[in-house]
Amino acid sequence: MDTHLKEARLFDYPVHLTETAGALAFAKSRVANGQTAQVVTLNPEMIMQGDQNADLGRVLKNADLILPDGAGLVWALRKKGCQVKRLPGIEFSEALLAWAAETDQPVALVGAAEAVLGLAVENLIRRFPGLRIVYQHHGFFKAGEEELQIAKACAKAQPKVVLVALGVPRQELWIERYKPLFTGAILVGVGGSLDVWSGKTLRAPAWMRRVNLEWLYRITSEPWRIQRIYKTLPMFVVKVCLAGPKA
Ligand code: UDP
Q1: Helices in 161-223 by DSSP H: which ranges?
Q2: Fewer Cβ close by (within 10 Å): the C or N end of the chain?
Q3: CA contacts within 13 A on the Cβ side of 27
Q4: Whose CA is nearest to atom 21 of ligand 1?
Q5: Whether this model's pTM surpasses 0.70
Q6: Ligand 1, atom 5: nearest CA belongs to which residue?
Q7: Domains (ranges, CATH) in the chain?
Q8: Taking the CA of residue 198 as centre, how many other CA atoms within 13 Å lie in the half-sphere pointing to its CB?
Q9: Element housing 38 (H / E)
Q10: Residues 65 and 72: beta-carbon distance below 8 Å
């Protein structure tokens, strides 16, 4: 069994037009077939970074499952006439974890500060009874030998779900580089999700998520993000508007 997902394109960046159920079916099918998959949760900031950083651009274009995470991305796709709903990466990861707990699929977590990771693990085990975390490592390690040893130890534990929280682009590049070490595993770059699961940061209230304003909540609670968004989002909007239907 394999699951075919509808795909759209924004400036040569593919995006799968799917909701949680379709994305989860895809992941289950890959695990069942022993095929490893890289999942990217795409947003405008990543597209603008991908234009500047060829390695990141390549990973974003070649990932196996690319989810419409960013509100700005959904806006741009809808402008092109695509029927698409936002699928926050954290919600997909939670669906994966729920499935892993129910079906006893081993899970690995790589990333975040050590204390944050520890709290996140405690909370996730409480939230998803039966969740089996076979490997965990904080995300503050050196590139090169240390990074390689961590990837090897992670793969040796034979997880089927690997959530990597090292921030963009490091997490996407880590997954691409070490994906061949894994067998039938789903590897997802999850950004700040471990911080949320640890309780260190909060997600926006439900009404803000419903109207695609989660980004506004994030920049008000973490003001250092304003500078990051300010550098990329206006350029993205201009790029989409100038390209029109050719975007
Ligand atoms: N992080 C890490 N190692 C690093 C840099 C960041 O483990 O060298 C973690 C950081 O602690 C956080 C996550 O990566 O848990 C990235 O979070 P952020 O909210 O910046 O992600 P993004 O905005 O890229 O989704």
Answers
A1: 170-178, 193-198, 206-210, 214-221
A2: N
A3: 29
A4: 191
A5: yes
A6: 166
A7: 7-198 (3.40.50)
A8: 19
A9: strand 37-42
A10: no
